[in-house]
Amino acid sequence: MLTCGIVAGPLYIVMVVLQMATRAGFDISRHSASMLSNGDRGWIQIATFAVSGLLFVAYAIGLYRVPGPGRWGPPLVGVFGSGMVAAAVFSADPADGFPPGTPTGPPTTMSWHGTLHLLVAGIAFLALICACFVFARRFAAAGRRGWAALSTVTGAIFLAAWMSVFALQAARAANVAFAIAMGLILAWTSLLAAHQRRRADR
Fold first, then answer.
1. Residue 31's CB: how many other CB atoms inside 10 A?
2. What are the TM regions of this chain, as residue ranges (predicted)?
3. For residues 77, 78, 84 and 89, what is the CA-based torsion angle, rounded to 10 degrees?
């Protein structure tokens, strides 16, 4: 099941990048990846959320079975995966010209599913940030300073990028920074899975 964790992050990143390149009107500096769930090909992003989320849940189960990750790390990864699955069920609202034909600017009202999407996304992001710091503490206690530093820096960067989206009112630079930070933290999950699988194979 740890292999699921190696695959989950890259799968999500690749699918989002492919859609960024092929979906008319989508601009990562203006639109969140969640908005790809809208439009005729919105099912692709919905499936991406669902499959990636289930892989993260399986990854969390695999982490739980490996000695060392501690009590809180695996459940936090599981919460993140569950949040991705929930994001597939509760789609984000269209906004700011995407999909094409949508009025420019934020939506004047939010749908119930758009509101729930923001809620589950917030819970998922917070869980993954906490997972970074929990694993950082575990690695530090085990004397693995490199992994402790990587986990701490990854969590801190993602938290700062996420907060900047709100502080700067979704400015283009903040949106791009958040997308990059998302790629970074998903890469961390894959590296962690590979590390734990090597330990389990010994």
1. 25
2. 43-64, 76-92, 112-135, 147-168, 174-194
3. -170
Q: Can you give the residue range of the structural domain that contains 166?
A: 2-201
CA distance 97 to 82: 29
The pTM (predicted TM-score) of the whole model is 0.93
Backbone angles phi, psi at 95, to 5 degrees: -165, 160
Which amino acid is residue 175, in one-letter code? N
Return d(Cα 133, Cα 150) in angstroms, integer.
Answer: 10
Query: Measured between alpha carbons, how far is 80 from 128 in angstroms, rounded to an integer?
Result: 6
Q: Tell me: the pLDDT tens digits for 38-66?
A: 999 999 999 999 999 999 999 999 998 87
Beta bridge partners of 98: 95
Nearest to 135 by CA among 65, 89, 75: 75
